[in-house]
Structures are given as C-alpha cells and as structure tokens.
Amino acid sequence: MINKKVGRIKAEDCVFVQVDIQEKLFPHISDNEQLEKNLVTLIKGLKLHEIPIIVNEQYKKGIGETIPSLRELTDEYPHFEKTTFSCCGNEDGLSAIKATNRNTVILAGIETHVCVLQTAIDLLEEGLNVVLVTDCVNSRKAVDKETAILRLTQAGVVPTTYESLLFELTVNAKNPVFKEISKLVK
C-alpha cells in the first residue's frame, strides 16, 4: 500500500500510540533517563493539544505495568495488553486507533526495532500515516534503534522530534497552548 505524502502534521488528524514503556524492560533500554524525560514532555504536550492517546503494554505479567511517570499521565486513556509485537495484532487496540477517525498516528515507545517497527509497518499497511518521534523511541542497543529508524523512514514513516512535533501542532504563537508548550520544552 502506498501512503499519501505527509505534509503538515495537524492536531485534529492525530492519535498518539504509546508502545510498551514498561517497568521490567525500561531499565535495560539505552539512555532510559533521557527517554523518560522526553516521553513525559511529549505526552504533556499532546494532552495540551487534546490528542487522543492509546497505551499498549506487552504481556504485563512478564514485563510489568507502564512506568509510573507515564502511567500517571495516561491512566485515563485506553490501555491494551498484547502478546503480538505489533500493536495492530491486538484487534481491540487496532479498532481503538481506527475509532478515533484520525489518519495520522504519532508513535513512541520501546523497543524501536521490534514492537515499534512492527506496529509502524502494520499501521502503514492499514493506510494510516505514521509519525515516529525519534527521540521518544529507543532500544537496548543503539544500532538496533538506528537501523529501525532508517528502515521505517524508507518505508514511509515520517521522522520528527518531540519539540519539533509539539511546535508543528501549535502552528502559531497566538495558539492558546503556545506558552505552556514553550515552558514544557525548556
């Protein structure tokens, strides 16, 4: 399937999908303290823009809950447990994404080369646009993250950073959330 070329990323077109940022895996992820800080900023900013959020968790019995700092930000949003690596392998999770009637999925989480990659590929095959927040994904090894981002970009995923994305969604300094977004990214 060929996706249309993605131009400006607009808040009203987006849904955020969080992938497997869980307690037992997170300590093993490269540069996890910075990743956590970036994810907290991203999620707070997306909430200011009223972007729907969908949380996915891989086999919670084995990998645990979403890490506490993100759990407190996302508790009120739908959570889906999965055993497939792709979030799209869980029919309820995929249905929740489609039910938002948004055509652009903002994607962040771990591990970039496994669950994030497979989710992104499946979302593209579903005809959705995928925006990968590259400073809000990671793996245990840098080469895995780098290779996954390269593959996903070649497949049609749009790479961005959390700061670039939050300002793109804001559009204008007159936007009512501009000052709050500016404070978040400082």
From TrEMBL:
The organism's place on the tree of life at top rank: Bacteria
Domain Isochorismatase-like as annotated: residue spans: 15-163
Keyword Hydrolase: yes
Keywords noted in UniProt: Hydrolase
GO molecular function annotations of the record: hydrolase activity
First and last residue of the signal peptide: none
PANTHER family: HYDROLASE (PTHR14119), ISOCHORISMATASE DOMAIN-CONTAINING PROTEIN 2 (PTHR14119:SF3)
UniProt name for this protein: Hydrolase
Species annotation: Halarcobacter mediterraneus
